[in-house]
Write a structure and sequence with these properties.
The structure is a single chain. The protein is mostly beta strands. It is 0% helix and 52% strand. The protein is built from no helices and 11 strands. Strands 2, 4, 5, 6, 9, 10 and 11 form a 7-stranded mixed beta sheet that branches. Strands 1-3-8-7 form a 4-stranded antiparallel beta sheet, with no helix packed on it. A hairpin with a 4-residue loop joins strand 7 and strand 8 (78-83).
Amino acid sequence: QVQLVESGGGLVQAGGSLRLSCAASGLTFSTRAMGWFRQAPGKEREFVAAIRWTGGNDYYADSVKGRFTISRDTAKNAVNLKMNSLKPEDTAVYYCAASRGFGSPKTEADYDYWGQGTQVTVSS
């Protein structure tokens, strides 16, 4: 049984930092990428960042490039998202996801497993 469990969300002031973590179990990682997506109220879910499990190549949305850093811990089967210089527009539910590994890591359709989401709220 595949499980993705996110943690680390919360309330932070603009300019602050948060670190999200996603613990994965039940997956075969070799060809997969792990990604973070977010969904703000009234908006569609959007890509934030992804990392290929083998090789560690990373990918970012333009809106977070230079502020967010994705990393993986292969020993713990975990993926982390360090978010710096947070802005009110970063407020959303953040989802961890595991891709099939066949397409672009930025494409939601390539992801077949999702976590339950964790709320990130950035106050101005």
